[in-house]
Amino acid sequence: MKSRQLFVALATLGISAMSQAAVAPVLVIHGGAGVIRHDMTPPKEKAVRAAMTHALQEGYAKLKAGKSALDAVTSALTVLEDDPNFNAGKGAVFTHDGKNALDAAIMDGNTLKAGAVAGVEHVKKPILLARAVMEKTPYVMRSGAGAEEFAKE
């Protein structure tokens, strides 16, 4: 066997072995955009860190229980959507018209399916609606009134 063929064979075996190896799950989140730390009071920073820790714990618990990465991400994000310290859900930034127009998106890396919603104003947990778009419709994105109607359905 030529050395190049041997290398390719060994590399293929190595990749195959790596894909079979157990990998410890990792969950990474961020609290959104637009908050600058120097504007944050110590009590607010403490509350933000506590909420992010709670979100990570909720998501990681799903992974440890054998649930999917989608379940973990969805769980972590619903925690952030419930917290007024973040620019999702309760803490969303107001539009020029004084309304909250929320967006959310999710993707399954295994299937490459994705779901998103944009401009929803009456949906408490936009990430759950985005996931429903991915799992229950042929669409990738629903927006505005169409997304609101789908949420009611």
Short descriptors:
single chain, 153 residues, mainly alpha, 3-stranded mixed sheet, flat
Secondary-structure element series: HHHEEHEH
Strand arrangement within the widest β-sheet reads: 1-2-3
Proportion of residues in extended strands: 5-15%
Largest sheet: 3 strands, mixed
Taking pLDDT < 50 over at least 5 consecutive residues as the criterion, the unreliable ranges are: 6-17
Helical residues, percent:
40-55%
State mean pLDDT (0 to 100 scale): 85
Rg on CA atoms, Å? 20 Å
Measured distance between first and last alpha carbons: 62 Å
Principal-axes shape call: flat
Briefly note the structural class of the backbone.
Answer: mainly alpha
- The counted number of beta strands is 3
Number of helices: 5
Give structural notes.
The chain has 153 residues and is mainly α. Helix content is 48%, strand content 12%. It is built from 5 helices and 3 strands. Strands 1-2-3 form a 3-stranded mixed sheet. Helix 4 links the parallel strand 2 and strand 3. Helix 2 packs antiparallel against helix 3 and helix 3 packs antiparallel against helix 4. About 8% of the residues have low confidence.
Architecture blueprint of SSEs:
Layout: H1 3-20, H2 42-64, H3 69-81, E1 102-108, E2 113-120, H4 126-136, E3 141-143, H5 144-152
Parallel strand pairs: 2-3
Antiparallel strand pairs: 1-2
Describe this structure in a few short sentences.
This protein has 153 residues and is mostly helical. It contains five helices and three strands. It is flat and about 45 Å long.
